[in-house]
Structure formats: C-alpha cells, structure tokens
Amino acid sequence: TVHVLPQTPQLIALLTIIRDKNTQRGDFIFYSNRIIRLLVEEGLNHLPVKEHEVTTPLGRTYAGVRFEGKICGVSIMRAGESMEQGLRDCCRSVRIGKILIQRDEDTSQPKLFYHKLPNDIAERWVLLLDPMNATGGSASMAVEVLKSKGVAEERILFLNLIASPEGLEHFASKFPKLRVITAFIDEGLDDKNYIVPGLGDFGDRHFG
Ligand code: HSX
Ligand code: HSX
Q1: What is the dihedral of CA 45, 43, 30, 133, to 10 degrees?
Q2: Known catalytic membership, residue 107
Q3: Which of 34, 88, 95, 201 is catalytic?
Q4: CB of 160 closer than 6 angstroms to any ligand 2 atom
C-alpha cells in the first residue's frame, strides 16, 4: 500500500527548493532533511502501540500509549544514507543496516555489492531508506535481501522522497503487503529511467 504525505503548501515549498537546480548543497541537505523528518514521523505512525498509563505532575493519571516493538533502519547506499540522520533525529540509538546496491546507468539494472544488517533484524520493524524510487528495481532487490533474512513483508516500511508511478506499481504488484511512504509521486521516467521532473541525482546533490 502507498501512503503519500499530505501535499501541504509547506511541503511543496520544501520540494520546490530541493528541485531547483540552483540550490546549493548546504540548502539541499537542510531542506531535504526537513522532508525526511516528516517521512520518518509518518513511518512511525504505522508502528503498533500498547496501552500505557502515566501520572502527570498534577497527580492525575493519563491513559496513554507507548511504542511496542523494535525497529531498525536500513539504508540503500549511497543515496539512502542521506536519510539516516533524519531517522536518528527521531530514534536516537536506532540500529542501522546497510545494503549497497548500484544501478547500472546504461541498463537500469540494479546490482547488489554488499549488505550488513542487525543480527536480530527478523524480529524488528524495518524502515527502509532510499530517497528515489525510479523503476523500483533497486528497492525491490533490497526487499529481497531483507526477506532472505526473515523479515516479513508487512514489517517493512519503505520511506521515499520521490517515486515514479512505474516504481510504485512495481512495488504494489510485487510486494502487496509492504507499505511505501512517499512524499511525492512524480510524472514518470525519461528515456534513461530518471524520474521527471525529479531533482537530479539525489546522492550527487547531497554528497557531491
Ligand atoms: C527502539 O530501538 C528505540 O526507538 C531505540 O531508539 C532503539 C534502540 O534499541 P536497540 O535497537 O538498540 O535494541 O525502537
Ligand atoms: C538512485 O537509483 C536511487 O537512490 C535509487 O537507489 C535508485 C533508483 O532507481 P531504480 O532502481 O528505482 O530504477 O541511485
């Protein structure tokens, strides 16, 4: 299932800054981090909670809830690493696994180079991080790695800034139980499978 963040003027203004080719790295990082933070908060909304009562300073009890279940982040390198800080801003000591997948820009086919994941990942909810979902090839390969480690599809939340309709369709048909949380759905892909209008190469703009 696909959840798109509410398209508020604020969010569109942030997006406009990071799409602008004249935006320099410092601003690109700062403003994309603000969007990433919203994605993380929305992702956390999908996690289970259980009842939890506290006493307020006024001596009254409050019947609230607390988070239940363990989480971890998994970033798809390189671009996904840019989302790790936004996750840590919300979950200070969160464990973060890495999967290095590179898309061959001539064939658009993803290639898996490396992965290192928390050893108890099968017991965790996984926030999978990659800012761009173009054909959906890279992220699906990452999901296959997670599934091979025993992570259930319904425990994966794929956090993503910009998705193409093609990439989302790919996911919905392949992994119907996986939740995708994206900030924007763009028009589509160009003949090199870049997202348009897009924002260029996220990794290049963030890391240089
Ligand atoms: C929990 O996992 C909390 O969000 C913490 O930030 C984090 C630390 O626990 P662990 O991963 O070290 O077990 O969900
Ligand atoms: C970019 O290409 C992104 O960060 C993703 O890792 C990947 C998206 O392309 P695709 O595999 O969805 O076509 O480096």
Answers
A1: -150
A2: yes
A3: 201
A4: no
Atom of ligand 2 nearest to the CA of 133: 12
How many CB atoms neighbour CB 66 within 10 A?
10
Quote the ligand 1 centre to 59 CA distance (angstroms).
30
Q: CB 81: neighbour CB atoms within 10 A?
A: 19
Per-residue pLDDT of the chain (208 residues; tens, 9 = 90+): 999 999 999 999 999 999 999 999 999 999 999 999 999 999 999 999 999 999 999 999 999 999 998 999 999 999 999 999 999 999 999 999 999 999 888 888 999 999 999 999 999 999 999 999 999 999 999 999 999 999 999 999 999 999 999 999 998 999 999 999 999 999 999 999 999 999 999 999 999 9
Q: How far apart are CA 185 and CA 68, in angstroms?
A: 31
CA distance 93 to 54: 24
Active site residue 104: no
Is 190 known to be catalytic? no
Residue type, 12: I
Q: What ipTM is given for this predicted complex?
A: 0.67
Q: Is the CB of 167 under 6 A from ligand 2?
A: yes
Which residues have C-beta atoms less than 6 Å from ligand 1?
70-71, 91-95
Which stretches within the chain are classed as H helix? 9-19, 25-44, 84-90, 137-148, 165-174, 202-207
